[in-house]
Amino acid sequence: MVLGGNGKIVNVTSIAGKTPGPYQSVYHATKAFAHSFTEAIRSEVKDKGILLPHYCQELQIPTFLIKLIFLTRKLFRKKKWLILQM
Questions:
Q1: In the chain, how many domains are there?
Q2: Per-residue confidence (pLDDT) for residue 78, from 0 to 100
Q3: pTM across the whole model
């Protein structure tokens, strides 16, 4: 990429690299390293035509869980009870 004068590298980490993580210290440390490494490499190649966007994922709640929460709230407001059979 450096010889060609252009290129893109996308680095994906999580918000865990920006917060401490008791009992998950290795995971959090590797995410912090990935973020720091991307910033360092970006500054080294910024004048060589290489882009290094850094995507930091935050907490994501699955869509089905959001729908379940809203459905449950709606049922409780109408005094209807949600009965789940196991």
A1: 1
A2: 59
A3: 0.58
CA distance 85 to 55: 41
Q: Is residue 73 part of a domain?
A: yes
What is the C-alpha separation between 39 and 36, in angstroms, rounded? Answer: 5
The 10 Å Cβ neighbour count of residue 13 is: 20
The Cα 84–Cα 13 span in angstroms is 37
Over residues 12-53, the pLDDT tens digits come to 788 888 888 888 889 889 888 988 888 899 899 888 888 888
Task: Answer whether residue 30 is part of any domain.
Answer: yes
Give the integer Cα–Cα distance in Å for 46 and 43.
5
Q: What is the pLDDT of residue 61?
A: 63
Asked if 46 and 1 count as a contact pair (C-beta separation under 8 A), the reply is: no
Give residue 55's identity as a one-letter amino acid code: Y
Q: Which domain holds residue 61?
A: 7-77
